[in-house]
């Protein structure tokens, strides 16, 4: 079901059912490589799912069985980035990575076929990765004259360990689904025919849990790596919870009533 009012996208698909938003990169003719327009649409779709209170969990996937995503579209790679329709060159996928990482709902990568290059980093950034048995993973940067030294290196090292992360980047090999599971790069591997069903099952399980607990846990996992921005995200959750208390509301009410606030009935907790 595509929700009413959803924009018509050219490079992606947006579906929602049962509090699960599914965002699909839809360029199978290039193994779901992304161009600036694709990334712009993905950012819009993730924002939509983030803000929609009817959405609890987001699934990112690629159209067809052959690829999740093969990274930046090399045909339109220009002098300093990927060229858009106006000729402007971008690396806007870095903004998308930050968005997936920080939006306060679980994001699940559903991977069939290749997750390669910048497409591999996208699955890495997602909170969970569910792989079909035909999935293949790897970085190609040093072979095609590129690299992702941000989350692509740092989160990779945190996920699979430093030695393995360096191997993945320095050798540009491909790894099958069993190897990916073995190194902790994915959460589970299922037969291709079971991929959709398992992903929905995992999403349904998360949807039965406390949204606030999952929201704050996601921020907590990012907090130390993300420095002040990570603390901001955690602290924003504390502020939002404080707003819901009588103590927090007394300050606002006093201001609106044009009186001094009276916090005397609230305890100084140990
Ligand atoms: C993905 C992979 C391994 C698939 O291989 P295979 O054998 O299944 O398919 P094939 O024949 O290579 O690809 C099918 C069609 O898709 C195009 C191919 O050129 C081919 O087109 P035709 O010959 O049929 O016309 N295609 C595939 N990937 C593409 C891409 N990324 N851009 C444009 N066209 C693509 C194999 O195709 C592969 O290795 N692809 C390249 C992977 C790659 O190097 N990606 C870029 C990494 S750099 C990056 O993503 C990046 C970054 O490092 C930093 C910031 C932002 C992005």
Automatic annotation (TrEMBL):
Pathway stated in the Swiss-Prot or TrEMBL entry: Quinol/quinone metabolism; menaquinone biosynthesis; Quinol/quinone metabolism; 1,4-dihydroxy-2-naphthoate biosynthesis; 1,4-dihydroxy-2-naphthoate from chorismate: step 6/7
Keywords per UniProt: Lyase, Menaquinone biosynthesis
Entry binding sites for hydrogencarbonate: 139-141
Cofactors: hydrogencarbonate
Catalytic activity: 2-succinylbenzoyl-CoA + H(+) = 1,4-dihydroxy-2-naphthoyl-CoA + H2O
GO biological process terms held by the UniProt record: menaquinone biosynthetic process
GO cellular component: cytosol
Source species, domain of life: Bacteria
Enzyme Commission number: 4.1.3.36
Site-annotated residues for Important for catalysis: 82, 243
Gene Ontology molecular function: 1,4-dihydroxy-2-naphthoyl-CoA synthase activity
Residues involved in substrate binding: 31, 70-74, 82, 114-118, 140, 146, 243, 258
Family statement drawn from the similarity comment of this UniProt entry: Belongs to the enoyl-CoA hydratase/isomerase family. MenB subfamily.
Function: Converts o-succinylbenzoyl-CoA (OSB-CoA) to 1,4-dihydroxy-2-naphthoyl-CoA (DHNA-CoA).
UniProt protein name: 1,4-dihydroxy-2-naphthoyl-CoA synthase
Natural source organism: Marichromatium purpuratum 984
């Amino acid at each position: 079901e595509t929700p009413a009012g959803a924009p018509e996208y050219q490079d992606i698909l947006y579906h929602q059912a049962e509090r699960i938003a599914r965002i699909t990169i839809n360029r199978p003719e290039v193994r779901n490589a992304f161009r600036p327009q694709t990334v712009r649409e993905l950012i819009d779709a993730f924002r939509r799912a983030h803000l929609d209170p009817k959405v609890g969990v987001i699934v990112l996937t690629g159209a067809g069985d052959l690829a999740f995503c093969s990274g930046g579209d090399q045909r339109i790679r220009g002098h300093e980035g990927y060229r858009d329709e106006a000729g402007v060159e971008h690396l806007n996928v870095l903004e998308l990575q930050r968005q997936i990482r920080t939006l306060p709902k679980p994001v699940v990568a559903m991977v069939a076929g290749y997750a390669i290059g910048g497409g591999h980093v996208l699955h890495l950034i997602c909170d969970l990765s569910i792989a079909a048995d035909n999935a293949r993973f790897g970085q190609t940067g040093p072979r095609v004259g590129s690299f992702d030294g941000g989350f692509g290196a740092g989160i990779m090292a945190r996920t699979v360990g430093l030695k393995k992360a360096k191997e993945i980047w320095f050798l540009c090999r491909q790894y099958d689904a069993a190897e990916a599971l073995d190194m902790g790069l994915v959460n589970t591997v299922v037969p291709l025919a079971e991929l959709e069903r398992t992903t929905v099952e995992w999403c349904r399980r998360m949807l039965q849990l406390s949204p606030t607990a999952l929201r704050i846990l996601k921020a907590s996992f990012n907090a130390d790596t993300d420095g002040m921005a990570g603390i901001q995200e955690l602290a924003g959750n504390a502020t939002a919870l404080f707003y819901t208390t009588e103590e927090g509301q007394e300050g606002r009410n006093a201001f609106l009533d044009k009186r001094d606030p009276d916090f005397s009935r609230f305890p100084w907790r140990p």
